[in-house]
Specification:
Strand order of the largest sheet: 1-2-4-3
Oligomer: single chain
Number of strands: 4
Shape: globular
Radius of gyration: 18 Å
CATH class: Alpha Beta
Number of helices: 9
Largest sheet: 4 strands, antiparallel
CATH superfamily: NADH Oxidase
CATH architecture: 3-Layer(aba) Sandwich
Helix content: 40-55%
Structural class: alpha+beta
CATH topology: NADH Oxidase
Length: 196
Amino acid sequence: MTTPLSTTALEQLFYNARTHGHWQNRAVNDETLHQLFDLLKQCPTSANASPARFVFLKSAAAKEKLRPFLMEGNVEKTLSAPVCVIVAQDMQFYEHLPRLYPYADAKSWFEGNAAAIESTAARNSSLQGAYLIMAARSLGLDCGPMSGFDNAGVDQAFFPDGRFKSNFLINLGYGEAGKLHPRAPRFDFDDACQIL
């Protein structure tokens, strides 16, 4: 049986968590990235398809390879982040379904069905990127997700065989809380929700 998280945990994951663009000069170790993946991989995707692929850019050389494809306003925040994650989608994710979803012939649902492949890869890699954010926050990291970059350029530079396609980027590290803007407004329940 599950129980509600403590107020402290909810504050860390939601209420006090922010999108960061300024970073402390503090490294994120590889063990933390492994822990992060071990958490996010537990979360649900359609038929356990798990189409997201994650490229963790830590070295200066790797981030410089990304630089030409970033919008101007995203360059400094990305180069100064300890890690920038390319959240990508495997456009042949269905090849793994016999292993990941052995309960049905799920691979046949996608073979030759470009529309199903594209929608499933996009939706579920986006979900997995969101899980990554929550996993990172749970491990004490701050995040700066963004989509201001040239996807085609990133794909050519990092995934030239065409199998993977970039979805969005997430900067990871330990943020400079003193440099945050005030939190932007959020909808109230009645603005965005219905109970029928």
